[in-house]
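> call design_seq(struct)
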């Protein structure tokens, strides 16, 4: 319950145009300190949970083990974690490409789902809680790779959930 409260507080901050990406280039030590705030930590944790759910617990765990073995007693960059996950997925999913869309964009997407009979249409757009004119920037190019998980009436959530990666503005 406490973690959900933290996530929702972070999402409120991230839904403002004055937000910042989880990962960005820095020029000074002051910028480094500004990057390590609650938003970065909580959003980062949420993104890792999203990835774990999408890849499955076992695949995610194997990717973490590869990452830790490859970089023990050394330094690493965020791409190194994604590369380890790519190694485990054997090229079936470009984890780096997917996760970059989440860590280099500020904010998060709003996904609209419309059902017409057996056809489900989904569309994404950048969600802004409140536009602050002094900090407004265009977000027309924002595109996330969103892992959507769903079930049908033929199964339940724990036994046969299916996944769809929304990597366009809309999909069916």
């Amino acid at each position: 319950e406490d973690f959900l409260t933290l996530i929702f507080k972070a999402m409120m901050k991230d839904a403002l145009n004055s937000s910042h990406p989880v990962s960005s280039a820095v020029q000074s030590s002051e910028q480094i300190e500004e990057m390590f705030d609650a938003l970065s930590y909580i959003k980062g944790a949420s993104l890792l949970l999203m990835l774990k759910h999408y890849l499955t617990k076992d695949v995610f765990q194997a990717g973490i083990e590869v990452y830790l073995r490859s970089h023990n007693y050394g330094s690493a960059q965020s791409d190194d974690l994604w590369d380890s996950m790519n190694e485990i997925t054997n090229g079936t999913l470009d984890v780096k490409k997917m996760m970059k869309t989440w860590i280099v964009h500020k904010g998060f997407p709003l996904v609209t789902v419309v059902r017409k009979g057996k056809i489900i249409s989904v569309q994404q757009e950048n969600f802004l809680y409140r536009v602050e004119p002094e900090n407004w920037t265009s977000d027309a190019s924002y595109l996330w790779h969103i892992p959507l998980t769903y079930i049908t009436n033929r199964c339940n959530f724990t036994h046969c959930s299916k996944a769809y990666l929304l990597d366009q503005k809309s999909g069916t």
